[in-house]
Amino acid sequence: MRLRYHPRVACQQNLTHQLCVFELPRRIHCGCPVHCLRMPTPQPTQFNPLAGLAALIFPGAGHLVLGRSKRAFLACVGVMGLFLFGLLIGGIDAIDSKSDRIWFFGQTLVGAPTVVVNYIHQSQFKAADPNNRVIRSGFPGEQRVIMNDQPVWQPLTQDQIAQGLGPPNVPGLGRINEIAMLSIVLAGMLNLIVFLDALMPSPEKLPKPKKQGGST
């Protein structure tokens, strides 16, 4: 059998069948008495700094810029799930740029959520020590009060303690706090992978080729 070859068509023959691979958008008959498969060519990977910047700001935002809403949703659920799990078991003290600076470097990879939580922690949950004016978290038996436009810790009386007064939060200690901080760091590492995928997006998964009936 004699086959006619096209510059953009590759035909491969073996003992049982022949496979025709098309790269042109239109259907081309190469003369093979078999079913022909139309294979679309994937687009090359492109560098997208805008999508990368969006991914650093919020998990999944980079893929929304790329128009990949499903992947953006999955990335957001994965990263924010680890992030919220850490806050759930460790409280707001799991993110602390002053006391846990090394952990905080990894947590910042999550993006804006880490920055916002840390700002709330530093501005609304901490106060100055009445003795040395060092900004710290409160201890049991203290109350956060405003004096001279600055929050400070004030010791509580026994009656105030009996009324249930105390600091808005206490420093997290032990393995639970470590697991909470680690969970948020893992969320940051996961978002780093999401950031790289948005910065240098890979081609979309190609659809399965459709068989087209051919005549002998």
Would you kindly provide a written description of the structure presented here, covering whatever features stand out?
Among the domains are: 1-41, no CATH class; 49-125 and 169-199, no CATH class. The protein is built from seven helices and eight strands. The protein has 216 residues and is an alpha+beta fold. The strands form three sheets. It has a four-stranded mixed beta sheet with strand order 1-2-3-8, with no helix packed on it. The protein has a two-stranded antiparallel ribbon with strand order 4-5. It has a two-stranded antiparallel sheet with strand order 6-7. The model is unreliable at 5-29 and 32-42 (pLDDT under 50). The protein is 40% helix and 15% strand.
Put the structure in a nutshell.
The protein is α+β, with helices and mostly antiparallel strands and 216 residues long. Among the domains are: 41 residues, no CATH class; 108 residues, no CATH class. It is built from seven helices and eight strands.
